[in-house]
Design brief:
The protein contains 7 helices and 6 strands, in the order βαααββααβααββ. The strands form 2 sheets. The protein has a 4-stranded antiparallel beta sheet with strand order 1-5-6-4. It has a two-stranded antiparallel sheet with strand order 2-3. The two termini are 35 Å apart. The protein has helices at 15-23, 31-37, 41-51, 70-79, 84-91, 96-99, 111-133; strands at 2-4, 55-58, 61-64, 94-95, 137-145, 153-161. It has 167 residues and is α+β, with helices and mostly antiparallel strands. The mean pLDDT is 86.
Amino acid sequence: MSSRKPSWSERELPAFFRQWRTDWKDENLSPDNYLDFEGGLRFVLAAAWLFCPETVDYRGCVFLKEHFGQDTVDDWFTNLEGDRRRIETVVNHVELWGIFSNTPLAGDDRLGEELPQLALALGECWQGILSARYRDREITVAVSDEEDGSYGPTVTFWTSPTASAFG
C-alpha cells in the first residue's frame, strides 16, 4: 500500500474536461465554466458533504458523522482495545470506489484514473477543515491507493491531543 500526506499541488485537468474544452473549441474554458455549462450546481452542493464532512466527537475521538454508529464504535473500542488512532482510522476510512460504485470508471473518460487525484483533493480539504474545527487536536489525514487494487484510492484520518509547549 502506498500512503502519503495529502497534497494536490501537481494537478492535471481531468481527461473528460480536456475533451469537453476541445469539443467547444475553446482552450480558455475553466472547470468553473464546465460546472456552469453542465448543470453542476446540484453535484457540487452534494459534494460539499464529502469535502466538508459533518463530524461527531465521541469518547475522545472524532468520527465522520455518516460513518458513525455508537454501537459499532463501541465494538471497535472493545476489539481494538481502546486504541483511538486505529479506531478512528477504521471508522473514518472512505473508499472512493465505494462512493462511485454506480459510475463507470473505465472507458473514454478514464474516470477511474482520476480518483487518486480526487483522493488527494479530499484529503487536503479534510486536513484544513478538521484542523480548524479541532484546534486542540493534531489531525492526521492519510491518502492511499492499494497497490493490488483491492480498495482503490482511500482517505482516512485520526486525531491526537496537541502537545502543549509547556509539557
